[in-house]
Amino acid sequence: MGPGPSDVPRRILDAMARPTIGHLDPEFIALMDEIKALLRFAFQTENALTFPVSAPGSAGMETCFVNLVEPGDTVIVCVNGVFGGRMVENVKRCGGVPVIVNDEWGQPVDPQKVEEALKANPQAKILAFVHAETSTGVLSDAKTLCALAQNHDCLTIMDAVTSLGGVPVKIDEWGVDAVYSGSQKCLSVPPGLSPISFGPRAIAALEARTTPVQSWFLDLSLVMNYWQGEGGRSYHHTAPINAMYGLHEGLLMLHEEGLEAAFARHQSQHADLRDGLEALDFSFLVAPQYRLPQLNTVRFPARVSDEAAVRKALLENHHLEIGAGLGALAGKVWRIGLMGASACPQNVQKCLGALEEELGA
Ligand SMILES: *Cc1c(COP(=O)(O)O)cnc(C)c1O
User: Fold this and answer.
1) Residues of the chain with pLDDT > 90: what percent?
2) What pLDDT does residue 225 have?
3) Does residue 83's CB lie within 6 angstroms of at least one atom of ligand 1?
4) Which listed residue, 166, 233, 300, 348, has the most CB atoms within 10 A of its CB?
5) Ligand 1 within 6 A of CB of 63
């Protein structure tokens, strides 16, 4: 019950134990096509360029930035936690010029500040933001942020690593131009794959580049020939075959459950965990309307004098992992994950029971 990786269902692990076949085997190509279709379902998009990058969520982040940011480009980056800070780092390393819109950790991105930054920087090419900040447990208003970007003729890059599968992610309806996610959070698939989706405006920007993408591996114009090529597909890199079996199975399970049912499950487990934690005198960092059901950031009661010792006891005595605070929140909060298959009554009860026992409530 940490901030990822989440519990991986037996069914997904079994799928990953199937025999390894060739990365250009017709059976594998058919599986790749199913993965793309299932990802379009999960992202709620028709974007043809939708596939998993063969590396963890951080590589999906990097894919979006290296393909869309050219040296000298201005990028407005919203920072309200750890992952927004990493976006700034990505922009700089691409030779871009970041304009940072800061919000306090525990608060969502403020659309008014974003609008001011867009007005003050008419040359800005991209607005980048984190939909679900895993370092704080905050959900930002992606729909409003995308509308603002479009009004100012800006592309959007959205981090949906923790949101995908846990709360609504509507790429086409909101008009997100480039998005990346991860296998290991609410999809409950082992870490190591990063689903991405690029819309028509992002592809046009990629085609209009005057400089080559500095990363060979993440250059979409090259990797596309492996994931898309009609008729024949050509070798780019050897896909992690068994990891793809796992992602395929995890997406099938999401499809079987249905998006709305998955979101409702995260919400109801969150409500039960919240009630139990509040009864134990924990309080939430984030205001109710911005809270992520899949990542519960709580301040502990005064009787917790050594928070690290309690986390250690949970792990050693109960085999229960919860997350520590990050950055400015280190030592001040815990982050309790209810991501994907981890969002179930057994986990909620186990967590509350273990805390009661360790805190002597
Ligand atoms: C976990 C996470 C990432 C990075 O994903 P990795 O799989 O750890 O590389 C990026 N952004 C957010 C919001 C995350 O929660």
Assistant:
1) 94
2) 82
3) yes
4) 166
5) no
246 shares a domain with 329: no
What CATH number did the domain enclosing 65 receive? 3.40.640.10
CA distance 74 to 155: 11
CA 342 vs. chain centroid, Å, equals 16
Counted domains in the chain: 2
pLDDT band at 109 (very low <50, low <70, confident <90, very high): very high
Closest Cα to atom 2 of ligand 1: 161
- Which helix (DSSP H) or strand (DSSP E) does residue 305 occupy? none
Do 15 and 90 lie in a common domain?
yes
CB of 166 sitting under 6 A from ligand 1: no
**Residue 330: which domain range?**
258-359
Helix/strand/coil for 108: coil
Calculate what percentage of the chain has a pLDDT beyond 70. 99
Tell me phi and psi for residue 58, to 5 degrees.
-60, -30
Mean of pLDDT values over 264-286: 97
DSSP string, 319-338: ----EEP-GGGTTT-EEEE-
From the alpha carbon of 59, which atom of ligand 1 is closest?
Answer: 9
Pair 266, 188 in one domain? no
User: Is position 1 within any domain?
Assistant: no
225 and 341 in one domain? no
Query: Which atom of ligand 1 is nearest the CA belonging to 131?
Result: 13
The string of pLDDT tens digits covering residues 235-250 is 889 999 999 999 999 9
SS3 at position 223? helix
The pLDDT value given to residue 250? 98
Structure tokens at 104: 């306090």
| pTM greater than 0.70 | yes
Nearest CA to ligand 1 atom 8: 57
Average pLDDT, integer, range 151-161: 98
Q: Where are the beta strands (DSSP E) in the chain?
A: 49-53, 74-79, 97-102, 126-130, 132-133, 138-139, 155-159, 178-180, 194-198, 283-284, 295-299, 323-324, 334-337
Atom of ligand 1 nearest to the CA of 184: 7
Question: 281 with 239, same domain?
Answer: no
* Torsion sign across C-alpha atoms 180, 185, 190, 192: positive
> Could you tell me if 122 and 269 lie in one domain?
no
